[in-house]
Amino acid sequence: MRIGFDSERYISSQSEHIDERRRQIGGKLYLEMGGKLFDDFHASRVLPGFTPDNKISMLERLRDEMEIVVAINAKDLNRQKIRADLGIPYEQDVLRLVDVFRERGFLVENVVLTQMEEDNHNAKLFKERLERSGLKVARHYPIPGYPSNTDLIVSEEGFGRNEYVETSRDLVVVTAPGPGSGKLATCLSQIYHEYQRGIKAGYAKFETFPIWNLPLDHPVNLAYEAATADLDDVNMIDPFHLQAYEKQAVNYNRDVEVFPLLRSLLQQLAGSCPYQSPTDMGVNMAGFCISDDLVCQEAAKQEVVRRYYHALGNEAATHADPIESHRIAMTMAKLGITKEYRYVVRPALNLEAETGAPAAAMQLSDGRIITGKTSPLLGCCSAMLLNALKLLAGIDPEVQLLAPSSIKPIQTLKVDHLGARNPRLHTDEVLIALSVSADTDENARKALDELVHLRGSEVHTTTILGSVDTEIFRQLGLQVTSEPVYARKTLFKK
């Protein structure tokens, strides 16, 4: 893989910049951190060299001087909102976040339930669960007219109603699962309570995207628009920054829209606001750490196409109007690319046209493309996976890693005893069969040894994957897209 981002430079410069901002603010700094602190696969895809845990590795430089507060919107608990990339509810993600942070040596003692209402039974149960686990939980309540009614917000009936989060460090990072969590309101509420207690406090924001010192139409910034198409976010030139400094900087609509109110709130809370623009609030140094712009541009274009296919798949699954996919299609038009800019699309479609059955294609990290077709014994994804492993292991393509005699008993078990309608082996079944064979078959062992080298490969299938193949490919670290059609025309999808 070609590298376009200097990870080490980022870790060093970003941690130093946050520490500098804390010193400039003086007293306690509440740092709102948008996006993911780890498992940031979007950043790692569009900035090759940026590792998924880059941000938390950066924060480790400040670990002894900071603590983390996790916020979650209580309404998301009632809605039983699911984190799409992991397939787990937000409440489980809160527990996961706390565990990961603590395993990395960070101080995490507090969770904030934002938008808490008395009739939210699920939130009350979750609060009890957290407290039984030894965490402290603060409740923050809806404020009528937020964020425009500043007189009410900055009063005992506004932020004053919220429960104070007792922190012990001068740098407090506020993070959360998903958007709309109330991170900003949590920071501002805490600043209000700190000043009520005679403690000086300030606010800053860390958000990786959009990257403020890249052009508005840079592919990396456009990839962020594609990633947030479901939220209707758009990147824009920061008008406050332009007015204050006569310099262009890129921000996004929500921060620009809320800035006047945020500035007013900070003025009321602290007596003054240190920022002239939403860009000023940020501490993001990612743009200074791009080492090969062309590599990042190419990676970002590929990400936009992936997002387009994901949107098409979601719309097909939910029978939703094609709003999100149309937004991303407009982004693709800006970049001058089509869906076939994704190099695995055409080989998969060609094989399907040739065979009349679902097909799959994989692009390895070195650019080589492998295909897989549907057969009586194997689904196209299983065939593609075996073909890729044979290629990487230097095994003759004609060699059968799994003999038909070893596949037949698995098919019999599936159909005759487990009630499956599709006798073909899924990817998990193929891998299990390959593992069993590896004990006695040298080729199977060599093929299994190559699994690790599939990570990061690109895959396209001509039909929407089932849940089993989707999960296996996720665990293997493959980047998968699919045509927005199902292999079987049924109402119930599994």
Summarize the structure.
The chain contains 20 helices and 14 strands. It has helices at 7-25, 41-46, 54-59, 74-78, 90-103, 121-132, 150-153, 183-196, 219-227, 239-245, 253-270, 278-281, 293-318, 323-335, 345-355, 380-393, 404-417, 427-437, 442-449, 467-476, and strands at residues 28-33, 66-73, 82-83, 88-89, 107-114, 136-139, 171-175, 201-206, 235-237, 250-252, 359-363, 369-373, 458-461, 479-482. Strand 5, helix 6 (121-132) and strand 6 (136-139) form a beta-alpha-beta unit.
Keywords:
494 residues; alpha/beta; dip2346 fold like; Cytidine Deaminase, domain 2; six-stranded parallel beta sheet; four-stranded mixed beta sheet; 20 helices; 46% helix; elongated
Task: Describe, in plain words, how this protein is organized in 3D.
The protein is an alpha/beta fold. The protein has 2 domains: 280 residues, dip2346 domain like (dip2346 fold like, Roll), CATH 3.10.630.10; 151 residues, Domain of unknown function (DUF1846), C-terminal subdomain (Cytidine Deaminase, domain 2, 3-Layer(aba) Sandwich), CATH 3.40.140.40. Helix content is 46%, strand content 13%. It has 20 helices and 14 strands. Strands 6-5-2-7-1-8 form a 6-stranded parallel β-sheet, sandwiched between helices. A 4-stranded mixed β-sheet has the order 12-11-13-14, sandwiched between helices. Strands 3-4 form a two-stranded antiparallel sheet. α20 links the parallel β13 and β14. The longest helix has 26 residues. It starts with 6 loop residues before the first helix and ends in a 12-residue tail after the last strand. The model has no long low-confidence stretch (mean pLDDT 92).
